[in-house]
Amino acid sequence: MKHIKIPATKFEINPLILNRWSPRAFFQKAISQDKIFSLFEAASWAASAMNEQPWRYVAVLKENEGEFQKLVDCLTPVNAVWAKNAALLLISGVTMHYSSNQKPNASALHDLGLANQNLILQAQSFDIYTHIMGGFDKDKAAGFFDADKNIVPVCMMALGYLGDPSSLDETLQQRENSPRSRRELSEFLQVL
């Protein structure tokens, strides 16, 4: 069941951006491996300082029940209750130092944000929705990057096809069905 929430805007923007939102209701349908690799290929083409590409990901499909549950267990209860229904969960992490000289990379988090946005927009082009979460146990999540202790987990993301909001509890249904809004441009923009 589709319940896409398309907001009104004052100016024209790309439909991939306009249609992007963060649902909590996911339909029980797997994401094909080709589409999954396409998402991460899109992430790989994000701009990054000195072409460092500091982003790192761990992605687990729902079909891999044991590992998927380990990612669900990293989430706060308020996120786990709905994210457990996603087709894929991922941890998004970053290396905070340049690999060439081990100096701090002040752009690393920005670069990860660009990679995540590329991934999200590529997903949107496939009618796959994403929900980024900051509510998770970062120490637990760091264990998934055990090959490199220098990776800092930044966020987790649930991905899947839209589901029926009635599958959620009443509070989450209200959030799912509430209108989308953004600040007025004048609140964050100065054009000189």
Structural overview:
The chain has 192 residues and is of the alpha+beta class. It contains 7 helices and 5 strands. It has a single domain (27-161), classed as NADH Oxidase (3-Layer(aba) Sandwich).
- Helicity, in percent? 25-40%
> What kind of assembly state do the chains in view correspond to?
single chain
The name of the CATH topology is NADH Oxidase
The named CATH superfamily = NADH Oxidase
Total beta strands: 5
N- to C-terminal separation? 46 Å
How many domain modules? Answer: 1
Structural class: alpha+beta
- The CATH architecture can be named as 3-Layer(aba) Sandwich
Which stretches are poorly predicted, pLDDT < 50 over at least 5 residues? Answer: none
CATH class descriptor name: Alpha Beta
Q: What share of residues are in beta strands?
A: 15-25%
Q: What is the number of helices?
A: 7
Q: Order of helices and strands, N to C?
A: HEHEHHEHEHEH
Largest sheet: 5 strands, antiparallel
Helix-strand blueprint:
Layout: H1 15-19, E1 26-27, H2 33-44, E2 55-61, H3 65-72, H4 77-83, E3 88-95, H5 108-125, E4 129-133, H6 138-142, E5 151-162, H7 170-177
Antiparallel strand pairs: 1-5, 2-3, 3-5, 4-5
Characterize this entry briefly.
The protein is α+β, with helices and mostly antiparallel strands. The chain has helices at 15-19, 33-44, 65-72, 77-83, 108-125, 138-142, 170-177, and strands at residues 26-27, 55-61, 88-95, 129-133, 151-162.
